[in-house]
Design brief:
The protein has 13 helices and 14 strands. The protein is of the alpha+beta class. The chain is globular.
């Protein structure tokens, strides 16, 4: 399942190909990507180490630029590995501790932060968002003054998804390095008809999470990403996790690539994700180890009160399931999917040139988290399709 709405999937790629054809990779020293694990890594003795590494190597042979994987379970602890390149131009191998863009997986962090504020008594989930955000913002959005915090969290608001506006896609592609503000992005949802009345259906919308980021800031009087740091990153010691607003393109981030021509001759796109650098619907930079640690902390009850975690798992199903994917329902900040290997709680994410997916299997208490520095064209079926995910899960659980 792909829970994001990538910017470019519905836009003619020939235009992006033209725009990127004038870009050039830069000379980077291998030491730039040097990193080390700061925990007791048992990957070399993991009983499934050869199986996991073979899977990653196969993905690279098939055309994926680079892939990072963490598998963590109660019996064998964590296996952490990588294959492929952090930088194709300079032929620098990917290391398992490297950082990458993980896109909309940040929505789970956003939601958990909102739920922590709820635990602190600073908001109610069934409050209208209009109690926290100004009418000058909400009046422009169809449903804006009617939706509740809960409806933003579980995508039952009906709010129009700004990313689907072709005018936004054109504007973004015309200036790939533009760094967009929340207000500029929301402008592409202003005046657009809502998909449905609040609470009557479920449909993924990035607009919901821009508003949730603004809500966090209104309640705390701090940038939302600073609140992430104070409530999640620092307490959990997620030393490889940061938000793009602090440093939009860190020197140490692995290079991103897109398969524009659908032939696996990829083009670098490292600097082209500026629409989500400053909004809580994307913009997270991390690696699979940190993301797996976060998932375990969340579902082990270390971040939220038990009643609040249970509230987050009150599921909202869409009236019509998407064909050719997993049966899906939305919780507060993550999704429940039905896989051949059991129920998983999950969120995936795209940026231009990057894809990530994080899954937690409650019955097995197992996390599977991976990040890829490539997408679109022939890469997507290898990493984000249900068939690709099922193949990965078969390797993990067989």
């Amino acid at each position: 399942m792909n829970t994001t709405t990538p910017l470019l999937r519905s836009f003619p790629l020939f235009l992006l190909a033209f725009l990127l054809s004038c870009t050039h990779s830069e000379v980077i020293a291998p030491a730039t990507f040097a990193c080390s694990v700061d925990f007791n890594d048992q990957s070399d003795t993991h009983p499934k180490r050869n199986r996991f590494q073979a899977l990653l190597d196969q993905k690279v042979r098939q055309g994926v630029p680079g892939i990072l994987l963490s598998v963590q379970d109660p019996v064998n602890d964590e296996w952490l590995g990588a294959a492929g390149m952090a930088d194709l131009y300079n032929q620098i191998p990917l290391q398992k501790c490297n950082i990458t863009r993980v896109g909309s997986t940040v929505k789970t962090f956003t939601a958990v932060t909102v739920l922590m504020l709820y635990d602190e008594g600073l908001l109610s989930l069934d409050d209208a968002v209009s109690q926290y955000l100004p009418n000058s913002v909400l009046n422009k959005l169809d449903n804006g003054t009617k939706v509740t915090v809960r409806q933003l969290l579980n995508h039952s608001s009906g709010l129009y998804n700004y990313i689907q506006n072709l005018q936004f896609q054109t504007a973004s592609l015309n200036d790939l390095k533009k760094e967009w503000s929340p207000d500029e992005l929301l402008a592409y949802a202003n005046g657009k008809k809502a998909y449905f009345a609040p609470g009557t259906d479920m449909r993924y919308s990035n607009t919901n999470y821009i508003l949730l980021g603004m809500l966090i800031e209104q309640i705390t009087q701090k940038p939302f990403y600073q609140v992430f740091e104070e409530k999640i990153f620092q307490p959990l010691h997620l030393t490889s996790t940061q938000f793009a607003a602090r440093n939009p393109v860190p020197k140490t981030i692995i290079r991103g690539y897109v398969d524009l021509y659908n032939d696996l001759n990829v083009v670098e796109s490292t600097y082209y994700s500026g629409w989500d650098y400053y909004t809580a619907d994307g913009g997270l930079i991390s690696n699979p180890h940190d993301m797996a640690f976060f998932l375990h902390a969340l579902f082990d009850g270390k971040l939220l009160k038990p009643a609040t975690l249970a509230e987050a798992m009150q599921w909202k199903e869409p009236l019509k399931q998407e064909p050719e994917t997993y049966k899906t329902a939305a919780g507060l900040g993550f999704f429940r999917i039905e896989t051949p290997y059991g129920i998983a709680y999950t969120h995936s994410g795209d940026a231009i040139g990057y894809y990530a997916n994080m899954l937690y299997f409650p019955q097995q208490k197992t996390t599977v988290v991976y990040g890829v520095n490539g997408n679109y064209g022939q890469i997507d079926p290898l990493v984000s399709s249900p068939e690709a995910i099922n193949g990965l899960l078969e390797t993990v659980f067989r």
